[in-house]
Design goal:
Blueprint lengths: L2 E5 L6 E3 L2 H14 L15 H11 L6 H20 L6 E3 L3 H9 L4 E6 L4 H10 L8 E3 L10 H11 L10 E5 L2 H9 L3 E5 L6 H5 L5 E3 L5 H6 L3
Parallel strand pairs: 1-4, 1-6, 4-5, 6-7, 7-8
Antiparallel strand pairs: 2-3
Helix pairs in contact: 1-3, 3-5
Length: 228
């Protein structure tokens, strides 16, 4: 293997029609009794732990271990229900993703993983809904760190346990749709591929210094050349 390719989920691989936001709001309401607990809290590109820490701090508490475990369990259960709820926002796989994953899945020189702010259980729920979970052998998740910038070394460590040899930092490729994804890649010396299928425009993503910026990944061959 010569490359490690790490995909973000929301806005990069799929759209979930706001299921994650609704599920997390439901979990917070069950625990604290207040609706819309995420109002005013930035969520795009951040880890679930960071988002919940802000929401809990708003209630005058710290996100300790038992509170985190309780909220996480409630959130994943609510998320699974919200993913099945019809007529609630657009749920879709992003352009080019099925073709790219199928191509990479058949190669023995590339290991494909996840680098996402989602809790691992939440990531599984979202991707399994679209039959995409099966493509990813390892990854780093929002439960592994509060700061997304700490996740690339976690993903690399797990990839090595899956058979990845020592590779150059620049041969780790992080694909995401927000400036946080780019910053996360660069914090570890990885290559950043930014795609404007989420909340950030092409122009905004170009200002981040990402090595490659795409409007979307429908030009699959151009993207796949990056991992040759």
């Amino acid at each position: 293997m010569r490359k490690l390719v790490l995909f973000d989920i929301d806005g990069t691989l799929v759209l979930t029609g706001g299921a994650g936001l609704r599920g997390m709001n439901r979990a917070l309401e069950e625990v604290f009794g207040h609706s819309n607990g995420l109002d005013g809290i930035p969520v795009a590109g951040r880890t679930d732990r960071a988002i919940l820490a802000d929401a809990v701090r708003r209630r005058g508490r710290a996100l300790d271990g038992p509170t985190l475990a309780d909220l996480q369990q409630r959130y994943v259960a609510s998320l699974a229900e919200e993913m099945q709820r019809p007529g609630q926002g657009r749920k879709a796989v992003m352009p080019g993703i099925p073709e790219i994953l199928n191509q990479l899945h058949g190669r023995d020189d590339v290991l494909v993983g996840l680098l996402t702010g989602n809790f691992e259980e939440g990531a599984r729920v979202k991707l399994a809904h679209f039959d995409l979970w099966r493509y990813f052998r390892c990854g780093a998740f929002g439960g592994d760190a509060v700061d997304r910038n700490a996740l690339v070394p976690v993903a690399v460590g797990r990839a090595r346990r899956c058979g990845l040899p020592d590779i150059a930092d620049a041969d780790v490729i992080v694909i995401g749709d927000t400036p946080h994804d780019v910053a996360c890649a660069h914090a570890a010396g990885a290559t950043a591929v930014a795609v404007a299928t989420g909340s950030s425009s092409v122009d905004e993503l170009r200002t981040t210094g990402a090595e490659h910026v795409f409007e979307d990944l429908s030009d699959t061959q151009t993207f796949l050349k990056l991992v040759e």
